[in-house]
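Suppose a colleague, Dr. K., hands you the sequence of a protein chain of 261 amino acids and asks what its three-dimensional shape might be. Before reaching for any lab equipment, you can write down a predicted structure in token form. Begin with the sequence itself:
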Amino acid sequence: MPTRDTTNLQDHVKIKDGVAKIDAEGVYYRDLNAILRTLNGDGIKKVELINVYGQRYIGTDLEGNIEIDIHGTPGNDLGAFMKGAYVTVYGNAQDGCGNTMDDGKIVIHGHAGDIVGHSMRGGSIFIRDDAGYRVGIHMKEYLEKKPIIVVGGTAQDFLGEYMAGGVLVVLGLNLNNGAKHEARFVGTGMHGGQIYIRGEIENVAKNVEVLNLDESDRHVLQNIVGEFCQYFKFDVDKIMADKFSKLIPVSHRPYGKLYAK
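The predicted structure, expressed as tokens, is then:
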């Protein structure tokens, strides 16, 4: 992790034609995020970050439609509390991506770590490859906001744990023919939202019901998977031709609606 050195921070930032380019090598994470907030406040609409190496909280609490391209590996809590930015990661992301995210979009051209979308209540996250444990934990809906997470590969245990709203999609594009999703305890404590799984999955929680898709589900998936394919150059028709299952909660928790809508 870079050590704190506030000297000559301006040397790391170049602005041309409304695009800010930042060389993050050796820049402490607090200083990097302070630069981003300043640029956002100054009306810059596009930021390119290079040499990112573990800096945390990139994009945290940013508002508006600023675009941030990240080349490298951002640290934990990428896009936490984000309120509208559009972040693209050309590499992997670590834990806590989209933590309590309120709006905006995160597109990851690689893998993501644990607790993606923790308490997320708006916006969308698209992950090309695998994701870690507890993806979508405490994910919820709020008023008109309906968060979306799409995992192109597979996810680990406790997928959708305590999920209270939103849509989780796991496509299993990297599974061999006939291979099953191995995540255990899927939907544990789930009391809202939907999980869509392409392929076979067995280890679901007792409070989850596994259903076939209806026409409404296919319409929802067509749009979500179509957007995923635009980012990562997959064939949406080929993906949609395969079998999907829909997981919904059967829990009758009396306080469930306090966490959703």
